[in-house]
Amino acid sequence: MTSAPPFPHRHLLGIAGLQPHEISYLLDEAEHWVTHNRQAAKHDDRLRGLTQINAFFENSTRTLLSFEIAGKRLGADVVNMHAAQSSVKKGETLIDTAMTLNAMHADAMVIRHGSSGAVQLIADKVDCPVLNAGDGQHEHPTQGLLDALTIRKAKGENFAGLRIVICGDILHSRVARSNIHCLTTLGAEVRVCAPPALMPAGIEAMKVAPFYDFDATLDGADVVMMLRLQQERMSGQFIPSPREYRHLYGLTLERLARAKGDALVMHPGPMNRGIEIDSNVADLAGRSAITTQVEMGVAIRMACLDVLTRRTRGVEGWA
User: Fold this and answer.
1) pLDDT digits (tens, 9 = 90+) for 178-190
2) Residue 50, SS3 per DSSP
3) Handedness of CA 78, 79, 83, 88 (dihedral sign)
C-alpha cells in the first residue's frame, strides 16, 4: 500500500484549506532551491520536455518574471501570454481561452487574472496543474508562501508566538488574504491595521485582530508587513489623501521603533515610497527583508512547479 504524497493537491489555487504540514512541506522544498539558486550553475533539468504557460490577464513584473525564471531554471519550455496581445481583447470568453490553452497540451499553467475566482474556473477546464499568480481580491498563494519562507529564514521554523503586523489596504489585498491564511495556519499571531474604509467587514473570522491605530498595532511586533495602496482597485474615496495616509499609516523610523528591536520589515512590492513606507525604512540594512522576499519568490515558485508536476513526470510516490 502506497502512502499519500505529502502535497496531494492537483493545483495551487489558494492557501485557504491547506494543512500546516502541507505548507511546511512546500517551504522545506523551497529551501533546497534557495541554496541551489545561490550557486553559479543554477540550471536543473527535471522539467525538461514540459511546457509551462504563464497566462497573465493582468499586468505584472515581479510575479511574471519570477515564474519565468523558476520554470527556465527547472528546464521547462516557458511561454508567456499577455492579455493585451491575446484574443481576450477580441472578446473571447475566459472559458474559450482556457479550452484553447488546454488544447495546446501544456504541462503547467500559471494564471493571473483581475477577477476573483477566474483561476478556479480555468483550473476546472484544463488537464494540467494550475498555479494561481493572483486573482482579483481573492488570493495570491505563492506570495503568501514566499513571505512565510522569508520570515522563517529570519525568525526560525516555529511561527507560534510570533506577532506579525500587516498594515495597509487590507480590503483590496489578495496578498493580505494569502498571508493571513498562511501565517495563522502556521500558528502566528496576526494583527491587521487599516483605515476603517480599507478594513474588510468580519475580518475577525479570519482569526486576526483588527486595529485602526497603527502605533498601537506595532507594540511588540516581530514582523511588520506593509501593503501597497491599490488605487487602481479603488472606486470612491477610501482615504483623504496620500499625505494624510502616510501621517496615520506610513511606516517611518519613528514608528518602527515601537516594534521589537529586531522586527523584520517586509513589503510585497511595488512600493509607494514616501506613502506606505519611507525609503530609509525600506532600505534599512539588517532589518528590511524586501529584496530577500524577491529571492524567496523564485525558490518558492520552483518548488511549487516541481511538486505539482511530479505526477506528470511519473515521480515515484506521486502517481
Assistant:
1) 999 999 999 999 9
2) coil
3) negative
